[in-house]
Write a structure and sequence with these properties.
The protein is an alpha+beta fold and 376 residues long. The chain is built from ten helices and 24 strands. The protein has helices at 44-52, 80-83, 100-110, 114-119, 121-129, 145-157, 175-192, 203-209, 227-232, 237-242; strands spanning 2-13, 16-28, 33-37, 59-64, 67-71, 76-77, 85-88, 163-167, 196-200, 212-217, 220-225, 247-255, 258-261, 268-270, 272-273, 280-284, 290-292, 301-313, 318-324, 327-333, 346-352, 357-360, 363-364, 367-369. A hairpin with a 2-residue loop joins strand 12 (247-255) and strand 13. Helix 3 runs parallel beside helix 6, helix 5 (121-129) crosses helix 6 (145-157) and helix 6 (145-157) packs parallel to helix 7. Bound molecules: adenosine-5'-diphosphate and magnesium ion (MG). Adenosine-5'-diphosphate (ADP) is lined by residues 11, 13, 18, 20, 38, 40-46.
Length: 376
């Protein structure tokens, strides 16, 4: 449906050149929602603006539905209104002096869709989709933030665009509304079946809405794949961190396939990797950690003695901040029978061998073998 190839966009600001989009290539299939996930400033909005035609890239090409809409080499750049793309922004950008009805009619007028405008059906259908029929005659200022964002969604869809772009549309809503509108949007995508790109810096939004995710870093795509692929096999530490592998342990080589934990008073792990590197980093999620009884005898994984820094009791689980060696780890795990954890208490934590991802110099390394199983 959409094919972006070798897209390049630089800005010059105060004599410096910022490469906002740096050789970006990806495709979006018919009916697919691709999520661009990355921190503020990594180039997400610029990619969308180039696709919409509001920004002219310096290099690359963009094809939509098999038709070229931009080609730097051929000097072709179709104007935005001819691309038939719907956009929904973070700041709903509704016209304050127009009723909801008139706001929804706006894209139809802009595209001179006179028949649809006269019949009124397109507007009603879009309004029904997001439950805003009851306030068609109100002005945006008379609606809550969530209602305004629903109207903005309807406005994005009303002209039946062949492609949708969403630029952090939920980030101005409070947490409860965000969850509701996210659900609405997911439902809409399922029922209406549009193709589109959804931009966010929020991991849970990305997982909830994306058929595939593209992790962006400094203008480039670091990894692209299904949520399952990236969650299960992040290719870089940066991608790992973005999908929640927030805990980090660093190991130095100790010879013969053994690695010693930095600051870990001699704690070693047996790991043989396929790729050589000067140090190894293990990344894992707070939920991946086990809280072990003080008297563990055998555990098929890495065992660490730590100290509790902060403790939140959540009924079935503890949420702990723990120092172990020179690392500070977040632990979200069920407590062993009768155990209590308060600040300053010793804690024994375990990480099974198959859990987590290993990295050398920021890149994924595959574990070829384990020398043995440790026991304590
Ligand atoms: P994101 O949406 O991921 O936060 P943006 O695409 O807005 O990122 O910006 C990417 C980079 O390009 C940033 O460094 C930003 O400052 C820069 N940038 C974006 N638009 C302009 C512009 N019109 N002029 C100069 N620099 C810009
Ligand atoms: Mg942005």
């Amino acid at each position: 449906m959409l094919a972006v190839k070798g897209l390049e966009k630089s800005f010059s600001a105060k004599g410096d050149v910022v490469r906002a989009v740096d050789d970006v290539t990806f495709e979006v299939a018919e009916g697919e929602m691709l999520v661009l996930l990355g921190p503020s400033g990594c180039g997400k909005t610029t990619v969308l603006r180039c696709i919409a035609g509001h920004e002219t890239a310096q290099g690359g090409s963009i094809r939509l539905g098999g038709e070229a809409v931009f080609d730097a080499a051929g000097g072709m750049d179709q104007p935005p209104e001819r691309r038939r793309i719907g956009m929904v922004f973070q700041n709903y950008a509704l016209w304050p002096h127009l009723t909801v009805q008139r706001n929804l009619e706006f894209p139809l007028r802009a595209r001179r869709m006179k028949a649809e405008l006269a019949a009124g059906e397109a507007v009603h259908q879009a309004a029904r989709l997001v439950d805003c029929v009851p306030y068609l005659q109100r002005f945006p200022g008379e609606l809550s933030g969530g209602q305004q964002q629903r109207v903005a969604l309807a406005r994005g869809l009303v002209a039946k665009p062949r492609f949708m772009l969403f630029d952090e549309p939920l980030s101005n809503l409070d947490a409860l509304l965000r969850a509701q509108v996210r659900h609405d949007l997911h439902e809409l995508h399922r029922t209406v079946g549009f193709s589109g790109i959804y931009v966010t810096h929020d991991q849970s939004e990305a997982f909830a809405l994306g058929d595939r995710l593209a992790i962006m870093r400094a203008g480039r795509i670091e990894q692209i794949g299904t949520p399952q692929e990236i969650y299960g096999r992040p290719l870089t530490e940066y991608a790992a961190n973005f999908v929640g592998l927030s805990n980090r342990l660093v190991f130095d080589p100790a010879g013969a396939g053994r690695w010693s934990l930095q600051g870990g008073s001699g704690r070693e792990v047996p790991v043989v990797t396929r790729e050589a590197s000067d140090s190894l980093t293990l990344r894992f999620r707070p939920h991946d950690v086990d809280l072990l009884p003080a008297t563990t005898t055998a555990y098929d994984g890495l065992v660490l003695e730590g100290r509790v820094v902060d403790s939140v009791y959540e009924g079935r689980h503890y949420d702990l901040s723990v120092t172990a060696g020179s690392a500070t780890l977040n632990v979200h795990a069920a407590a062993p029978e009768g155990a209590r954890f308060g600040p300053g208490d010793p804690v024994r934590i375990g990480l099974r061998w198959h859990i987590g991802s290993w990295f050398g110099d920021g890149r994924r390394v595959e574990v070829a073998a384990r020398a043995e199983t440790t026991s304590t």
